[in-house]
Amino acid sequence: MYLSLRGLSHSYGTTEVLSDISLTVPSGQIVCLVGPSGCGKSTLLRMVGGLERPDRGEVLQVGAPPEGCLNPLTFVFQDFALLPWRTVEGNIRVVLEDHRIRRERAKEIVADVLARTRLTDFARALPRQLSGGMKQRVAIARALAVNPAVMLMDEPLSALDAQTRELLMDDLVSLWSREPFTALYVTHNLSEAVRLGHQVVVLSRRPGRIREIVQIDTPLAERGLGNPELERHQKHLWEVMRDEARAADEELLDD
Amino acid sequence: MTEVTMPEKSRAVPFRGGGFRPRPVRFVGLGVFVVLIALVEWGTRAGWISALTLPRPSDVLATFGELYRSGALWEHLSVSLVRLSVGSAIGVSAGVGIGILIGLFSLIRAGLVPLVAALFPIPKIALLPLFVIWFGIDEGSKYALIALGTFTPTVVATYGAVDNVDRTLIRMGQSFGLSWLSIVRKIVLPGAMPGILSGLRISLAIGIILLVAAEMLGATHGVGSYILQAGSLYDLERLFAGVTILSVLGVTVSGLIGLVEKRVLNWRA
Amino acid sequence: MLMNRRHALAAMGGAAAAATGLAAPAIANTPLVVGALRLTSHAGSYVALDRGYFADAGLNVELRFFDAAQPMAVAIASGDVDFGITAMTGALISLADRGAVKVIGGALQEEPGITGQKYLVSDAAFQDGVTTPAALAGRRFAISQAGSSFHYMGSKMAKAEGIDLEFIPLQSVGNIISSLRSGQVDGWSIVPHIALALAGSGDVHIVGDVADYIPDYQVTTVFTSSGNAANERAMTESFLSAFSRGVADFNASMVDATEGDAARDEMVRLIHQYVYTDREYEKAAPSIINGAMRLTPNAALNVASLKDQLDWFKAEDLVDQDIAFETVVDSSYVESV
């Protein structure tokens, strides 16, 4: 299954935030969405996930979701959105409980995603006991549990410090390498985008339009630190974005 | 950088942080009680506090002991506890229920919030004669008074707590396709629980205050009626013994809620 | 001893008067606060004030009104009021025991042949066959509080009839009346003008006289602070004599009716300045006339009745068992009967 965005436009009152966005998120690829702050990337992601309604245009799911998929479009949030009163295990179970899954099957799923995110030893810990990186791994495990067709990742690493971010990027890469998943990945961090994206989509400042789509062909597993190919892409992206970012930074904020 | 000689004028940086952070200091609270009571005991014995002004603490203790030995303590306490628990159970459960509905549905919020705001400041005691006509002079009117008194603060605390539930958690629930009922049960309710419990503290304290009011009309037993009778007889020893019972009741209820919080809210730091 | 500025001034005035050797009235223009309820039974104070008897005695009296007897007793204990008239309640006895107040005279009493306090029953109870006080057996008898005069009257009746009553505290007369009307309680006892007014509405029925059960009942007493009783003898005597002149006028015009209708009407008008002020004279007059029980002449103390009341309080465990009659009553001011 893949996603097709057609002519998405949206306004808040008289302020147009997105204008005519058309984009394809191919199956088994990570598409990174970058742009200056306030360009509507997060709004776009929420529309793709059905949490917000676009004024014009549509989002199409093309083809059938994979077998055993409980929630085709699944979010991973910047602030993790873990239920603080549930354990790691409980936070994963909560998204399975509504799907009438047999108890043994649910146990298997939980065990599997915990193993894939290396959290098996922390199954009974409460969120407050976990570091930020662990919390985001729990959120990723939870997203994996519903076997999504497309993961919608809203700046998943932005709340983490630089070291943790590196570690988690490695985790994401190895997850993808073992079992490729489809993702639309919103970030404002260009090094993240070039590390994880098969495609990087650059949005302009408000109203957000697609400025450029950059293809990165280097396999994910080979994108180590200091890779000159990636440096080049990142530099190029920055040149595209710099003026937009400066202009966006100097805009007055409306209510 | 080889020289470490100090320039002629040097002084240590003065400390200017600290304070503004309450820390637990043990036994001071108890000490204040002890000193106050000892002072009153001394004053009443020495005579610079007249028998009209304050009772002698040892006499209050003796009255209390007599109350205990005669079994009257339990007689008064049991009926009051039943009134408090039945009345506040009705008021609190209705309050939590309606508070959640107000928190969840805009129409109900628009309809009921002004009503609750109008009910809140009414001194419930003023409605007691009316309740006697509506619910009878027996337990009915007493339950109703305590129920109404605990209802309004519970409603306000509950819908405030529901409003304060982290919206990103609700959005998470929706994004995973959880049913409306699941979101309410598994996200909204547990998320609102800290606010509801701290509201409960206030509601039950109000319930205890209203116990005295509820027992004004037609009660022959109960801590409240005991206090009222002591007041009308100007029997200061019994009055203070009764007030002490209410105080202890308040501390106990607050402690119980603390225990419940520890159990239910163990996920908080 | 409780001392306040007024007392201090009065004492200085007294000393000055004594020093100059003046005859009575020894204390000129002594400011006094007298507590009163808006009831016909407090007419002694109204008449003495209105007809200048207090002024004649050198007392500059200000009336302070209360809603109930209980706070009046406390106000005397606190020194805010000098003299008061009220039933011998548990609070009064407790305050006396604490050395704050003293009963110094009688104010109102039951007397055969004069309309006195009544036992009442609700219409529901009446329809249910409760047509005598004895038939209230096992039923609910309204009282304001344990240790109130209502409690005493109900308890004495129950004892005499050999029945049990369930006493229901309702705090105020207003609450009692509405509970009686709605049938929440079955019986009550009250002064005649309220009893007659209620019976007239048909919601409530009169089934007996308090005087039949408690003959010579000293319903209310005159009391003052212990300090006044012990140290302000001249002032207290002046008050009692002026008050008694008012009482005598009232009894003559209203109770014995020896002075004819004109004098009675004049008295009713005088009282109407203080009682039922929210009603027109024509409507208030019958109630005032109905409420005219005999005020005790010369504030005489009915020692037997007061002793009986004190014993009852002790028997009910409402006051301390060791309280002596002399602790509560200073019988040195007026004659005892």
Notable characteristics:
heterotrimer; A: 255 residues; alpha/beta; Rossmann fold; 2 domains; six-stranded mixed beta sheet; three-stranded antiparallel beta sheet; 7 helices; 9 strands; C: 337 residues; D-Maltodextrin-Binding Protein, domain 2; 16 helices; 10 strands
CATH architecture of the largest domain in chain A: 3-Layer(aba) Sandwich
Number of strands of chain C: 10
Total count of domains of chain C:
2
- Largest protein interface, residues of each chain: B-C, 20 and 32 residues
CATH architecture level-2 label of the largest domain in chain C: 3-Layer(aba) Sandwich
Strand composition percent of chain A: 15-25%
Could you say what the CATH topology of the largest domain in chain C is called? D-Maltodextrin-Binding Protein, domain 2
| Shape annotation of chain A | globular
- The percent range for helix content of chain C is 40-55%
Q: What's the Cα radius of gyration of chain C? A: 20 Å
CATH classification class of the largest domain in chain C: Alpha Beta
Number of domains of chain A: 2
Describe this structure in words.
The complex is a heterotrimer of chains A (255), B (269) and C (337). Chain A has 255 residues and is of the alpha/beta class. Chain A folds into two domains: 2-65 and 151-249, P-loop containing nucleotide triphosphate hydrolases (Rossmann fold, 3-Layer(aba) Sandwich); 82-148, no CATH class. Chain A has helices spanning 41-48, 88-93, 103-116, 132-145, 162-178, 190-196, 228-249, and strands at residues 2-12, 15-25, 30-34, 56-62, 73-76, 150-154, 183-186, 199-203, 210-215. In chain A, helix 3 crosses helix 4 (132-145) and helix 6 (190-196) runs antiparallel to helix 7 (228-249). Chain B has one domain (73-264): Orthogonal Bundle (MetI-like fold). Helix content of chain B is 72%, strand content 0%. Chain B is built from ten helices and no strands. The two termini of chain C are 30 Å apart. Chain C has helices at residues 5-20, 43-50, 53-56, 69-78, 90-97, 123-127, 149-161, 173-181, 192-201, 210-213, 226-231, 233-255, 260-272, 281-290, 303-315, 325-328; strands at residues 30-37, 59-66, 83-86, 101-109, 118-122, 140-143, 166-169, 187-190, 204-209, 218-225. The chains are: A alpha/beta (255), B mainly alpha (269), C alpha/beta (337). Chain B binds chain C through residues 50-52, 129, 132-133, 136-137, 216-220, 225, 228-229, 232-235, and chain C through 70, 73-74, 77, 89-91, 94-95, 98-100, 144-148, 166-171, 174-175, 178-179, 182, 184-185, 318-319.
